[in-house]
Amino acid sequence: MTTAVDTVLYQREGAYIPRIAAVHDLCGYGKCSLGVAIPVLSAAGCDVCPVPTGLFSSHTAFPGWYMHDTTNILTDYLAAWEGIGVDIDAIYSGFLGDPVQVDIIRSLYEKYPKAIKLVDPVMADHGDVYPTYTPELCQAMADLAADADILTPNLTEAAIILGLPIGNEWEGSNISDERAIELAQALLAKGAKTVVLKGITNEEGMIKNFVAGQDFEPFSVKNEYVPFMLHGTGDLYASSLLAAIMAGRTMAEAVDFAGSLTHDAMLVSSQQPNFQERGVNFETLLGRICNLLQ
After folding, report:
1. CA torsion angle for 155, 159, 165, 171 (degrees, to 10)?
2. Is the pLDDT of residue 170 over 60?
3. Cβ atoms of 210 and 181 closer than 8 Å
4. 186 φ, ψ to 5°?
């Protein structure tokens, strides 16, 4: 068995710019989803091709948010891509608006069988399911997780995927290292090739991300715990992880980079007015993502 230090999922070649289908919602206010994925992956020298799963006026913590479900346009949208010969090197999915969108993502998998498949199963956190997610959509997301080359759930999302009841254990993130590894390996057993279980806080002052893969021994990477929640940090973490992978970095390097960048972005965000409402700010850190190509 190899180690994550040696595991490279994408080999960058010369001046070629890889293309990524980013299957996420577009949020007008409150930084998340495509508002994070497009600039982060572009800074890593990737051509980001958005597939909008929904249009939001703001993230859902604001009162009176508006959502437009785009499911009905996506089949024609992607058929037009096929008609002009679009090629894709990675398929990165996040927030979904309807169970049918999972079938649409699977159609992308069939069209682009060599593409890296990153599934960020954005549907719940801290024991609570997001307000637009029905039981049917949660089940569809759990089914999609089994197809992932890279799966990046938090603890609540891992429980949903594994069919575990969301009880007291999932309201916090203080589980043992052994339990975290057990859950990550259970997700591997369902089909995912690599799992990054995010946000475990069982060590005072630290936050851990646990990584397990079918081809390497499990390990964890930790960063200083920042004691507040921000919308969009999960999107920033997954986007930064994929940015490093598409820059040719190893899995261990990518996990370390994503954790450090997300931590530092939270500190940058804390200096902004109304920062806990606005969501994560990373704009001044984009140069670090560009440096992945050096």
Report:
1. 10
2. no
3. yes
4. -65, -35
Determine which helix (DSSP H) or strand (DSSP E) holds 28, and give its type and residue range: strand 19-29
Three-class secondary structure of residue 51 per DSSP: strand
What integer is the mean pLDDT of 30-58? 96
Give the gyration radius of the chain's Cα atoms. Answer: 18
Q: How many residues does the chain have?
A: 294
Tokens of 139: 């089940």
- Structure-block tokens of residue 130: 């997001």
Q: Is the pTM of this model over 0.70?
A: yes
pLDDT over 80 at 171, yes or no: no
Which of 220, 286, 216, 212 has its CA nearest to residue 259? 220
Residue type, 275: F
Cα 159 from Cα 165, distance rounded (Å): 7
Q: CB burial class (10 A; 0-12, 13-18, 19+) of residue 182?
A: middle
d(CA 37, CA 98): 20
Is residue 216 a contact partner of residue 200, using CB atoms and an 8 Å limit? no
Give the helix/strand (H/E) hosting 26: strand 19-29
| H-type alpha helices, the chain | 34-43, 71-83, 100-111, 135-145, 155-162, 168-171, 177-189, 233-246, 251-269, 275-278, 286-290
Burial of 151 (0-12, 13-18, 19+ CB in 10 A): buried
